[in-house]
Amino acid sequence: MPVTVTRTTITTTTSSSSGLGSPTIVGSPRALTQPLGLLRLLQLLSTCVAFSLVASVGAWTGAMGNWSMFTWCFCFSVTLIILIVELCGLQARFPLSWRNFPITYACYAALFCLSASIIYPTTYVQFLSHGRSRDHAIAATAFSCIACVAYATEVAWTRARPGEITGYMATVPGLLKVLETFVACVIFAFISNPSLYQHQPALEWCVAVYSICFILAAVAILLNLGDCTNMLPISFPSFLSGLALLSVLLYATAIVLWPLYQFSERHGGWPHRSQDVSCSRSHTYYVCPWDRRLAVAILTAINLLAYLADLVYSARLVFVRV
């Protein structure tokens, strides 16, 4: 749903706009010569080189290696689709809102490539012996970093600014929704082993918090991508404000309960990493349970801050329907 962003007001409008915050040449090869088109070509090239380097030597093994390879292949594929749509002028026929989809994807891609740029070298590259495979893996990491910067630059270029007509996902609350869902997905990856939380009802509650908040934020994103915000029984602004408040309250309980029951001896936790025997062994592509617990605690704090910022912006911005 297009929105006009003012200093403290977001006003729903029915204006049409071609592009993501700036005019674009629709259905022409000249679209590739525009700054945004050149930036997307850089994204396409860097992700293609990253997965090609790794694939040529088979330098991806285990969950972390598979995650990195998936990231580069996925980002390459979707970026290619976006370029084809813009080159052929198919924005009107695209099944999702073109005002919201490209910047939503660019934000996710920046976070995906950032995670791959950190995870791949720390869990895989450092364990490789010197040689061709290691050189290719290091080069792939460098191109992953370039892709991350390119996607982040697109987000910075196309995000909502005062006086512009754009989609909700280009606003700060919209981008925070992307961050919230991405962090929740990473949390789910770390708690994929049920033994980390099934022994305590309080920890199961934390998992329920992560799931509930993820679903609500994902629904908000999907409603915008599908231009279906008018399907809610309440106004979309009210839904956003209620979502942010509820998520803050739920995450406030998780930020207390997760560390308390994971790291307090009184509640059956392990305060020191040395108490986890599995962490004393050096394994390639492996993250020990204690490190997973710590990672989830940190990510819970990050998401709580994101929801707090979301709540602040939702309270400051006034939505006026036309």
UniProtKB/TrEMBL annotation:
Protein name: Myeloid associated differentiation marker
Key words of the record: Membrane, Repeat, Transmembrane, Transmembrane helix
Taxonomy, superkingdom: Eukaryota
Region (Disordered): 1-22
Membership in a protein family: Belongs to the MAL family.
Keyword Repeat in annotation: yes
Listed GO biological process terms: establishment of endothelial barrier; intracellular signal transduction; membrane raft organization; negative regulation of actin filament polymerization; negative regulation of gene expression; negative regulation of heterotypic cell-cell adhesion; positive regulation of cell migration; positive regulation of substrate adhesion-dependent cell spreading
The gene coding this protein: MYADM
Upper taxonomic lineage: Eukaryota, Metazoa, Chordata, Craniata, Vertebrata
InterPro entries, per the entry: Marvel (IPR008253), MYADM-like (IPR047123)
Membrane topology designation: Multi-pass membrane protein
Spans through the membrane: 38-63, 69-90, 102-125, 137-157, 178-196, 202-226, 238-261, 294-313
Keyword Repeat attached: yes
Broad class of where this protein is predominantly found: membrane
